[in-house]
Amino acid sequence: MDTVSYPDEKVIKFLNNFVIPLRVRHDAQPLATDFSIKWTPTLVILDSDGKEHHRTVGFLSPEELIPSLLLGIAKLHFDLNAFKEALSNLEKILFDFPKSSSAPEAIYLKGVCSYKDTKNPRGLKEAYEQLQARYPESEWTKRAYPYRLL
Length: 150
Prior knowledge:
Serine Threonine Protein Phosphatase 5, Tetratricopeptide repeat; Tetratricopeptide repeat protein; TPR-like_helical_dom_sf
């Protein structure tokens, strides 16, 4: 990623504005053990207490790296019950990176966040319908399958 993704202007801007990047060698102890780093690159989204919320392993192009990081940030907010913040990041993925591999999970999580925030199951059904229309073979469509009945 050093030669393709990290030098990309959009990636640099995103990293500088939205995360606190920390680069650690894969064999640096105790972090490699603490975070079960088995392969590089491994990107881990942590909260301020060091709790993991999202992980990717392997190369990501700039077009996939930014939405993956946004998804990780959204999951962090989701786990902290900050649903409006999570929804904001998920919307950004779906608007700016609709063809990314993060988009199906973003639709799914958007439906779950909407439900958790409003207690209205409509968002869950809408998530399934969007997944079925855009990504019928996605694992996230399969996971949302029960929501079709709502």
